[in-house]
Design brief:
With about 325 residues, the protein is mainly α. The protein contains 15 helices and no strands. Among the domains are: about 90 residues, Serine Threonine Protein Phosphatase 5, Tetratricopeptide repeat (Alpha Horseshoe), CATH 1.25.40; about 100 residues. The longest helix has 22 residues.
């Protein structure tokens, strides 16, 4: 609240608050390091402590919480009490949803603001604005964890998966390295269709198209690994592993030395080792050893010890001298 001349008017000087006795913060008899709160901060929170103690839930208290949250939007106690006030006075939750939007736009990585919005959506049982809203926030920052978390909650709670793959595809067309979009794609399929044989076959094809565009995109390689590992049909799993192995070998023969390609090939060869006859194992171990040495000595020198460790483990396990 501002005074007529535009200056902020302390709560202690407001006539409508004269019936409330502010409560100062109790730091104990011998505070070690007293925080130097500003005068306005102290004023607002002294009055908030007073209404919290008395249990007052009125329109003026709602306005008081706005002032408190303006100075510290991460204060859980203020948000919680604000929700109690909203219920007590029968406030218009659509207006509160707009307030939460403004707060999120100002503080997009504040957990308490997002939690408040989730509660409002639950009370209203209306997610109609949430997907568009989170899309807007993600346009500001594609890696905003809170926005993604809220979006996933809305999708799962209200079963709104129908158009989500199209949204994700649009994000990946804009930036194929968008790890958050790849993660979202996995989440959507995991919680909707599941990893059936048809879905995995489709997703392997989709992912390989993206890998063909950018060979050194770790996100796409990780997604490829995940969908094969989660396939619910064993025949499809083996068929897709063979297909991907063939594509990976063809890609390597073109001269591609992506560390993610070579590492993926090592995993595929290790899987083959489990099923091959003794006559074929020596050749597979040699392939793994050569790839590990290429990674350790040229392509991924930072993790050279790791790749040589993998090579040694495989050679020892199958009793083959690389």
């Amino acid at each position: 609240m501002d005074a007529g001349d535009g200056e902020y008017l302390m709560y202690k000087d407001r006539d409508e608050w004269r019936d409330v006795t502010p409560i100062a913060q109790n730091d104990g008899p011998v505070p070690v390091v007293r925080i130097a709160y500003g005068e306005r901060f102290t004023d607002v929170h002294d009055y908030f402590r007073a209404v919290l103690k008395s249990g007052e839930k009125t329109r003026r208290v709602l306005e008081l919480t706005e002032d408190a949250l303006e100075m510290n939007p991460a204060n859980y106690t203020v948000w919680h009490y604000r929700r109690e006030v909203l219920k007590a006075i029968g406030a218009d939750l659509k207006d509160e949803l707009q307030y939460s939007r403004e707060m999120i736009e100002d503080h997009p990585k504040n957990y308490q603001v997002w939690q408040h919005r989730r509660v409002l959506v639950e009370w209203l049982n209306d997610p109609s604005a949430e997907l568009r809203f989170t899309e807007m926030i993600l346009n500001m920052d594609q890696k905003n964890y809170h926005a993604w978390q809220h979006r996933q909650w809305v999708l799962q709670t209200f079963k709104l998966f129908d158009q989500e793959l199209e949204f994700i595809d649009k994000l990946l067309q804009e930036d194929v390295r968008n790890n958050s979009a790849w993660n979202q794609r996995f989440f959507v399929i995991q919680h909707s269709s599941g990893w059936t044989g048809d879905v995995v076959t489709r997703e392997v094809g989709y992912t390989w198209e993206k890998i063909s565009l950018v060979k050194r995109n770790e996100s796409a390689w990780n997604y490829l690994r995940g969908i094969i590992d989660h396939c619910q049909d064993s025949e499809t799993t083996e068929a897709q592993r063979k297909l991907v192995l063939s594509k990976c070998e063809e890609l390597m023969q073109t001269g591609c030395d992506s560390p993610f390609l070579l590492g993926f090939l090592i995993e595929l060869y290790k899987h083959q080792l489990e099923d091959q006859s003794d006559a074929n194992k020596e050749d597979l171990v040699k392939k793994i050893s050569d790839l590990c040495e290429k990674l350790a000595g040229e392509v991924d020198i930072v993790r050279c010890k790791y790749w040589r460790f993998i090579s040694d483990c495989v050679s020892k396990k199958y009793a083959v001298v690389a």
